[in-house]
Design goal:
The structure is a single chain. By secondary structure, the chain is an alpha/beta fold. The chain has three domains: about 10-135, 3-Layer(aba) Sandwich (Rossmann fold); about 140-230, no CATH class; about 230-415, Hypothetical protein af1432 (Orthogonal Bundle), CATH 1.10.3210.10. It is built from 21 helices and seven strands. The protein has a five-stranded parallel beta sheet, with helices on both faces. Helix 1 (about 20-35) links the parallel strand 1 and strand 2. Mean pLDDT is about 80; it is low at about 145-150.
């Protein structure tokens, strides 16, 4: 079993920039809003390496251009990745372009653009550090990235995200980025061609997928397909069905859109449901022998999360949330992934993304899943009492009907 104790010492942050004014400004900001954090500064990569030799560091924030220094910020993060894989690595740059995204991968977890808003910068650093609490064991964090390295976002997804953030990208621009990866393009077209989307005809090109579905949905599908390619299993795990996993995620995504009932949150609900099982895929691909043991325990009747926790010390929702969070995806999406099985984490005061994903995941398995006033810890039962408290129980028949329609579309697609 992979377990580990939570960190007890204060958080230590290292700021690296050759602009003394920027260093003082960010250091003052962090000292005022997070007085318990230790903040160290360095003007060059060489000074930063000396800091690493003197003390433990949890997060390093480095500017890309470090003046005339021998090492750039990207090279510093590469060093940190190799020697200190447990450290969160963030790169600051005024050149947030697809080319820069390519150069910063796979060394940086996050690429932040200058100029930055002070409170937003603090929020991003805090969230990145809080994510470490999901996986307190360094060995498991290394397992997430393989070869003792923390993960970086799939290259094409990162480039697409950067292109879309520029607000000038058109269908042609995004399609050209995706089409550079043949395997990813094929995965995307296969997903989009599913009857789940109810398109009038089969989509046969990346451009067609973008034109029909829009940028936001395609970006989620690109990430999902890229993750499948990145974590493709080198050896089969008996009982692990990747096709079933993807099918359940896609069905859940469509149902989550129906359940949440809020147009402004529907894309996030779709994305969170689509990516809910990324932690399961990652564990099965990076630790096939251990995950085989997980599946044996499940066949003997152990609940999925309990069997994973017994073997790894943590279940796949936390692994997936950590992975997506360290890539800088939205907090509501991460919470949706984290709580798609855990009823206690989904006790909301209103319908939100985590609750919609939790319900959609159950309805995608069985539209007639039992609903009980006291669901307890059963991950396969809907907590009817909670829905009554939120005055949402009357919508359950509509959600069941929507789930049945989605699954019927899938059955017609695979017949």
């Amino acid at each position: 079993m992979m377990d580990g104790a939570a960190q007890e010492r204060p958080i230590q942050v290292l700021l690296v920039d050759d602009d003394a004014m920027v260093l003082r400004s960010v250091a003052r900001l962090l000292s005022s809003v997070e007085p318990e954090w230790g903040v160290a500064t360095a003007a060059t990569a060489e000074e930063a390496i000396a800091v690493f030799e003197r003390q433990p560091i949890d997060l390093v924030l480095s500017d890309l251009n470090l003046g005339a220094a021998a090492m750039s910020g990207a090279e510093l993060l590469s060093f940190v990745q190799e020697r200190h894989p447990d450290v969160v690595r963030i790169l600051l740059t005024g050149q947030a372009t697809p080319e820069m995204a390519h150069r910063s991968l796979p060394t940086a977890h996050l690429l932040l653009q200058k100029p930055f808003e002070r409170r937003e910068l603090h929020a991003k650093l805090k969230r990145a550090l809080q994510l470490r609490e999901l996986l307190t064991n360094e060995r498991l964090r290394g397992l997430v990235g393989a070869s003792n390295r923390l993960p970086s976002p799939p290259k094409v997804f990162h480039e697409v995200a950067v292109a879309l953030a520029g607000r000038r990208a058109g269908v042609e621009d995004v399609a050209l980025l995706i089409e550079r990866d043949v395997a990813l393009s094929a995965q995307l077209i296969r997903l989009v061609s599913s009857a789940f989307f109810g398109l009038p005809r089969r989509v046969r090109s990346v451009r067609g997928a973008i034109a029909y579905l829009g940028f936001n949905t395609v970006k989620t599908l690109v990430l999902s397909a890229a993750i499948v390619e990145q974590y493709r299993m080198s050896q089969p795990v008996r009982g692990f069905d990747l096709e079933a996993l993807q099918s359940h995620a896609l069905a859940s995504a469509h149902i989550a859109r129906q359940v949440i009932g809020q147009p402004s949150a529907s894309e996030t609900a779709f994305s969170a449901a689509m990516l809910q099982n990324v932690g399961q895929l990652l564990l099965a691909s990076r630790a096939p022998h251990e995950y085989s043991e997980v599946l044996i325990r499940q066949r003997e009747g152990a609940p999925p999360e309990l069997s994973e926790a017994d073997v790894f010390g943590v279940a796949h929702p936390a692994v997936g949330a950590y992975l997506l969070g360290i890539w800088g995806l939205p907090g509501s999406l991460i919470r949706g992934v984290l709580s798609h099985h855990d009823l206690q984490r989904t006790v909301a005061s209103r319908m939100d993304v985590p609750l919609s994903v939790n319900l959609a995941s159950k309805l995608a398995r069985d539209p007639e899943v039992p609903a009980l006033d006291d669901a307890g810890d059963d991950p396969f039962v809907i907590d009817l009492g909670h829905l009554k408290q939120l005055e949402l129980a009357h919508l359950l028949p509509d959600w069941r009907a929507a789930a049945a329609r989605v699954l019927k579309l899938h059955e017609g697609d695979t017949a």
